[in-house]
């Protein structure tokens, strides 16, 4: 049986990540899913409702991925690199980060959606700060690293690389940025 709501979310995510919030309409989404525009309103009354559901689903996927990273390794740089590889699929598909695509249009977004996007990034910065702090404590992150500032730097570097490498060098360019980021965080050999 067809799960229309899931299909709508999946296709809307591709549209937002590729074109931005203002760059797609319910007509575009209806064409992508193969249904009538009116059918979309049955699942998502407004575009804002759809976008809020998109961010919630995206956030849930990331929560699961971040939890998995913490289980897979306790080494700080390896955790940061695993986090960075979550972005790589976007590079390979030519898509930006959903929340970054929304953040670009911050001034035109409904307040509830702006709040959800900010919460997404705040959560990631807090997670990265924890990883960096734990990495410093275990010796797997350079002692001179400021976890709060570096957490923001990691997000900024990866979001920037995602945007840039979709245009320039693709996955290889993104991997190069990720390697350089790891090198900045790794303790120096004595």
3D architecture notes:
By secondary structure, the protein is mainly α. The chain has one domain: Tetracycline Repressor, domain 2. Helices cover 77% and strands 0% of the residues. It has nine helices and no strands. The protein has helices at 4-19, 26-33, 37-43, 47-72, 76-93, 98-104, 111-138, 147-167, 170-185. The protein is elongated. The N and C termini lie far apart (61 Å). The model has no long low-confidence stretch (mean pLDDT 91). GO terms for molecular function: DNA binding. This is TetR family transcriptional regulator. Residues 2-62 form the HTH tetR-type domain. Residues 25-44 bind DNA. Keywords: DNA-binding, Transcription, Transcription regulation.
Features:
mainly alpha, Tetracycline Repressor, domain 2
Question: Quick summary of this structure?
Answer:
With 190 residues, the protein is mainly alpha-helical. Helix content is 77%, strand content 0%. It has one domain (51-185): Tetracycline Repressor, domain 2, CATH 1.10.357.10.
Helical stretch count? 9
Counting copies of identical and different chains, the oligomeric state is: single chain
Structural category: mainly alpha
CATH homolog superfamily: Tetracycline Repressor, domain 2
In the CATH hierarchy, the architecture is Orthogonal Bundle
What does the main sheet amount to?
Answer: none
- Residue-averaged pLDDT: 91
Tell me the strand percentage band: under 5%
The CATH class name reads Mainly Alpha
Number of domains: 1
Considering DSSP H and I runs of 4 or more, what fraction of the residues is helical?
over 70%
Protein name: TetR family transcriptional regulator
Keywords: DNA-binding, Transcription, Transcription regulation
Pfam families: TetR_C_13 (PF16925), TetR_N (PF00440)
DNA-binding region: 25-44
